[in-house]
């Protein structure tokens, strides 16, 4: 990868972030942005004078790269044109006081405007003259829903016709990619006429483009647009202005702006990395770099945190699953359970007696230090290292939901397993888990998109097909992520609205799924120990109706509470333990052939079964349920 | 209104409600439904056998009116047809055990199906033959996104062609009204071929109809469809089956099913009332009635609850606004403040010292007892009456958010004001509030649609245009409601995702807006007492840029922190107090001409100003903020 001639300036529109203008500026600066677009509504609601905003930005090391938006200017009758020029002069005054030299002018949506490119060009020329008097440039942008101008090539024809040095274009990836406009014509726009570049991704939604734009934009890489190809084309023109994010998103609008700003910056770093990997020579030369991603090579371990009362439940379940407690940490209350490459740490040091949680996940890396350096460059919070002399010094960062993430090389000479004293306990069962298949982490609404971004950029995972499940206590969205070799799978899920505040005893559980090649035998052992989640007959009757499976197979599935799914690659059998302690359960999965999914369609049946098991338990033990 | 020949049976699909099948059945029965549609996924996830479900429904007094859905049946190649018949036979067995005699068959979306009405009719005929052997009827429904059959008239042609007594139609208002299909042809369908009627409303959204249907349906009257006209047409055919709700809604899916079921029933009662008022003779004769709505005639009072520390703040603000403390309740710690018909009760008996809330609203009714009877018939919870001998016995119910709602006749001989002993305090200020203009009640996500339904049906208010505001701490949706004479206005709002969990000191405030005809003088008095919320200069600079108001008017607005809006009817000036205690503030509004709005576009500026005021106050008084 060629070293870039200059690091590109990274920017963010204040509208991307939640809070007052002051909150937004602080968050953008803290994340390390070089500049901001000041969204007019944020400025208008602020008590700071323009001079105070200017000084605050200077203190924070932020340039004001753009003032935006100025709406409904061009192609109007003469009296309205005069009124619009007056309106613009007021904004130019504000900009001079702010020290901002570029203003975004959106293509008009006014019913008072006419479809006349010559008139639009003429009036924009006059606006540019006025702007130039103040040392200000006009960046004209085609809104995807503009009344007469809705495509970037149309806006470029008008700018070319207007022919004024203070008039150029703003390209916004959303407005262009949402309409599916052919992007090839970007190549004919001279770099000096590209005044500004706004970047936003979005999921593919079938809805009106205005609502799509105003509510569902995402940071680059979080959606379905080809931002890499788009940025490549823009940079290939020679554009050297800021890469600036303009993302309207209902969740980000109300989330902690300090977290959202870090996600925003992370998305831009990752986008540049993609361009550096896949882009044209000219584009590659103009982007910043990141340390490369050492490939993740599987789960090293998963750590379950458990309180005093919950820990025996977790241990009993691991034992029933077929793992053996092979080690005890030399300085911490942590036991190592394993069978094959399925390794679970149980950390009994959690204060709340009934609590359980997935406290940490650890992935195998060929170069843990390099993995950690990359995570640090991507602004992942580095966790303080607590280890004694002689113990492994594991590199760890925090995922957005607070889960600790470790990078390890288990087979290294000084590997982490050496921290555990052998227990001399009997070996693991003959049949049982062979590895961790996936870890399922339930996210808060605010963390979901950020978590996907984290695992994509920090682990190098790619998202699989998102799923949506109508679960008993509300809609659940999920996104599974995996590496090319499918050795690390993370399943993220989120309650789309919230879930079950009315339903006592249903928090959002997390789980660890173990791979096995004999799920029936594992299920039998779980059942014998009273640790198999019972799946109701109605499920099997429906399976029979739908799939007409051989009756002996169906009988066996029914007997062992195995659930079933299939896809074009293969089949899937899986079973569950009840929830152990407050919020962790285990799954055992058997992938037959090349089945790629997670049995998502069975999730509602599993959730209802978990609810029943919890109610039954609370009836048996009428002690107050702390959840 | 003609008395109906029989009360129509009211039903609800289990998919409308949150929880397990057991939760849903309990909620439907508690609300008073006569029957349910069992949604297959709910049944499949349940541990109850069909016989147990049957017994449970019987215990609860619920008929199982429909089993649904059966998908992707018709117009397929022979081998698939055989498989589909086998699948259906399994479901017929389940239905016999359930005691359900009608199954919904949706028009196919399968890529294996062909566009052949004759084949569809032939295969449906065969299905009906099989069904008839079990005493089961097939209700065929055109999904709006059906592959070959997507309109009800098309489904009717196929049913007519299939010509089997056990085969009829299911009409679903969503599938018909979402596509804008002409409903006139409903009149040609014989009642005996209308096997089932599903009712759902929806907002007008510009998105793909499948997502619209699966996520955004509403109960009748909560959306934009003409359900009254639709039901009128169906009843005019002579249809006497259940009126059954099938509503897929992301919020209802996770809300308390007992609350949602009451909303559901309330919507059906209100819909029947509309048909009874506006429908054809035949339709009117077949719906149930409700006590009529006595028109609300204005606010009698608003009651603010306040803790020990907050109460003086509220009192100081009312004094500064120009109200006088004219009365003291004879047995409760409640003061009466008033000026003109603006009356506020301040109830100092709230336990939390810093808390404030809108505890109650009271509306004038010509017949309070009749208003209360109607509310009770609409399943509004009746509040226990606490009054001593000789004190007014006010009829009160609880709104969905817990606010108490009273019906009063202030001018009655035994009016509620007699409970207050005159204070002999000086009269109200010469200039000030003349009435309560509106009360703004912030709702929880789960309560928003239900609150609108409540005020529409219980008060007889109609919803005005919904608004959506990009507020500093997240998107806020609002809906104002008023009576025909605009004497009672309620403004409901909700944080669309959540709001500002990250932002300390920003709960969701409620407010009371007073009408005045001299807002400037009221604002001056508020400012003198330090109780005027300061609006920043940037707002006025922007107002100047946008509207070019006369400079003296602008200067006066700036001086008095008056915000401004206008519509096609008139103009609007308004100002605010800071938040008093935990969550209540006051607004003063001056409607000029016939302005109908609420200055919604100014809300973000007001919210940012409230945040600033709160931060300034907490800096001045560094005692720990309890919020």
From TrEMBL, chains A, B:
<comment type="pathway">
    <text>Aromatic compound metabolism; 3,4-dihydroxybenzoate biosynthesis.</text>
</comment>
<comment type="similarity">
    <text>Belongs to the bacterial two-domain DSD family.</text>
</comment>
<dbReference type="Pfam" id="PF00903">
    <property type="entry name" value="Glyoxalase"/>
</dbReference>
<dbReference type="InterPro" id="IPR050312">
    <property type="entry name" value="IolE/XylAMocC-like"/>
</dbReference>
<keyword id="KW-0479">Metal-binding</keyword>
<keyword id="KW-0670">Pyruvate</keyword>
<dbReference type="InterPro" id="IPR043700">
    <property type="entry name" value="DSD"/>
</dbReference>
<dbReference type="GO" id="GO:0051213">
    <property type="term" value="F:dioxygenase activity"/>
</dbReference>
<dbReference type="InterPro" id="IPR029068">
    <property type="entry name" value="Glyas_Bleomycin-R_OHBP_Dase"/>
</dbReference>
<keyword id="KW-0456">Lyase</keyword>
<dbReference type="GO" id="GO:0046872">
    <property type="term" value="F:metal ion binding"/>
</dbReference>
<dbReference type="Pfam" id="PF01261">
    <property type="entry name" value="AP_endonuc_2"/>
</dbReference>
<feature type="binding site">
    <location>
        <position position="246"/>
    </location>
    <ligand>
        <name>a divalent metal cation</name>
    </ligand>
</feature>
<comment type="function">
    <text>Catalyzes the conversion of 3-dehydroshikimate to protocatechuate (3,4-dihydroxybenzoate), a common intermediate of quinate and shikimate degradation pathways.</text>
</comment>
<feature type="binding site">
    <location>
        <position position="198"/>
    </location>
    <ligand>
        <name>a divalent metal cation</name>
    </ligand>
</feature>
<dbReference type="GO" id="GO:0046565">
    <property type="term" value="F:3-dehydroshikimate dehydratase activity"/>
</dbReference>
<dbReference type="GO" id="GO:0046279">
    <property type="term" value="P:3,4-dihydroxybenzoate biosynthetic process"/>
</dbReference>
<feature type="binding site">
    <location>
        <position position="172"/>
    </location>
    <ligand>
        <name>a divalent metal cation</name>
    </ligand>
</feature>
<keyword id="KW-0223">Dioxygenase</keyword>
<feature type="binding site">
    <location>
        <position position="587"/>
    </location>
    <ligand>
        <name>Mg(2+)</name>
    </ligand>
</feature>
<dbReference type="InterPro" id="IPR004360">
    <property type="entry name" value="Glyas_Fos-R_dOase_dom"/>
</dbReference>
<feature type="binding site">
    <location>
        <position position="141"/>
    </location>
    <ligand>
        <name>a divalent metal cation</name>
    </ligand>
</feature>
<dbReference type="InterPro" id="IPR037523">
    <property type="entry name" value="VOC_core"/>
</dbReference>
<dbReference type="InterPro" id="IPR036237">
    <property type="entry name" value="Xyl_isomerase-like_sf"/>
</dbReference>
<feature type="binding site">
    <location>
        <position position="438"/>
    </location>
    <ligand>
        <name>Mg(2+)</name>
    </ligand>
</feature>
<feature type="binding site">
    <location>
        <position position="511"/>
    </location>
    <ligand>
        <name>Mg(2+)</name>
    </ligand>
</feature>
<feature type="domain" description="VOC">
    <location>
        <begin position="435"/>
        <end position="578"/>
    </location>
</feature>
<keyword id="KW-0560">Oxidoreductase</keyword>
<protein>
    <recommendedName>
        <fullName>3-dehydroshikimate dehydratase</fullName>
        <ecNumber>4.2.1.118</ecNumber>
    </recommendedName>
</protein>
<dbReference type="InterPro" id="IPR013022">
    <property type="entry name" value="Xyl_isomerase-like_TIM-brl"/>
</dbReference>
């Amino acid at each position: 990868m060629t070293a870039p001639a200059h690091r590109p300036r990274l920017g963010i529109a204040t509208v991307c972030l939640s809070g007052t203008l002051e909150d937004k500026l602080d968050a953008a600066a803290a994340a390390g942005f070089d500049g901001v677009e000041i969204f007019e509504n944020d400025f208008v609601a602020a008590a700071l004078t323009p001079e105070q905003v200017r000084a605050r930005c200077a203190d924070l090391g932020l340039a004001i790269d753009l003032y935006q938006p100025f709406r409904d200017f061009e192609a109007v009758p003469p009296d309205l044109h005069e009124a619009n020029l007056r309106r613009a002069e007021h904004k130019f005054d504000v900009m001079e006081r702010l020290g901002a030299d570029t203003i975004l002018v959106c293509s008009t949506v006014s019913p008072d405007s006419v479809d006349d490119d010559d008139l639009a060009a003429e009036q924009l020329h006059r606006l540019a003259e006025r702007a130039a008097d103040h040392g200000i440039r006009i960046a004209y942008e085609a809104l995807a829903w503009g009344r007469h101008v809705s495509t970037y090539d149309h806006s470029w024809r008008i700018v070319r016709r207007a022919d004024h040095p203070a008039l150029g274009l703003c390209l916004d990836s959303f407005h262009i990619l949402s309409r599916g406009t052919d992007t090839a014509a970007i190549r004919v726009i001279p770099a000096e006429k590209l005044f500004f570049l706004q970047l936003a991704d979005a999921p593919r939604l079938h809805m009106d483009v205005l609502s799509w734009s105003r509510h569902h934009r995402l940071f680059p890489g979080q959606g379905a647009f080809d931002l890499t190809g788009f940025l490549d084309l823009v940079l290939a023109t020679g554009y050297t202005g800021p890469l600036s994010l303009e993302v309207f998103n209902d969740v980000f609008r109300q989330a902690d702006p300090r977290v959202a700003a870090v996600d925003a910056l992370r998305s831009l770093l990752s986008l540049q990395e993609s361009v550096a990997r896949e882009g044209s020579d000219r584009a590659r030369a103009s982007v910043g770099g990141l340390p490369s991603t050492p490939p993740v090579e599987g789960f090293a371990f998963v750590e379950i945190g458990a309180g005093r009362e919950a820990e025996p439940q977790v241990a009993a379940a691991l034992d029933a699953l077929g793992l053996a407690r092979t080690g005890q940490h030399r300085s911490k209350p942590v036991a190592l359970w394993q069978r094959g490459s399925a390794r679970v740490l149980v950390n009994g040091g959690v204060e709340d007696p009934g609590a359980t949680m997935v406290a940490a996940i650890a992935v195998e890396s060929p170069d843990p230090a390099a993995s950690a350096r990359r995570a640090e460059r991507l602004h992942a919070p580095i966790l303080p290292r607590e280890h004694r002399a002689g113990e492994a010094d594991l590199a760890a960062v925090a995922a957005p939901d607070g889960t600790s993430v470790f990078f390890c090389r288990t087979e290294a000479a000084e590997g982490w397993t050496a921290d555990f004293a052998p227990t001399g306990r009997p070996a693991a069962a003959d049949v049982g888990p062979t590895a961790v298949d996936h870890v399922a982490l339930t996210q808060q609404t605010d963390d979901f998109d950020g978590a996907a971004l984290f695992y994509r950029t920090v682990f190098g995972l790619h998202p699989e097909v998102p799923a949506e499940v109508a679960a008993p206590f509300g809609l659940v969205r999920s996104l599974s992520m995996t590496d090319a070799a499918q050795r690390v799978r993370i399943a993220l899920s989120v309650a789309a609205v919230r879930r079950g505040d009315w339903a006592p005893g249903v928090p959002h559980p997390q789980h660890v799924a173990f791979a096995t090649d004999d799920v029936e035998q594992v299920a039998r052992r779980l059942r014998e120990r009273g640790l198999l989640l019972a799946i109701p007959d109605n499920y099997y009757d429906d399976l029979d109706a739908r799939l007409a499976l051989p009756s002996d197979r169906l009988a066996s599935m029914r007997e062992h509470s195995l659930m079933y799914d299939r896809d074009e690659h293969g089949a899937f059998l899986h079973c569950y333990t009840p929830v152990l302690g407050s919020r962790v359960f285990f799954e055992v999965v058997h992938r037959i052939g090349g089945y790629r999914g997670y049995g998502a369609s069975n999730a509602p049946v599993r959730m209802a079964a978990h609810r029943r098991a919890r109610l039954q338990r609370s009836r048996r033990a009428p002690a107050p349920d702390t959840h």
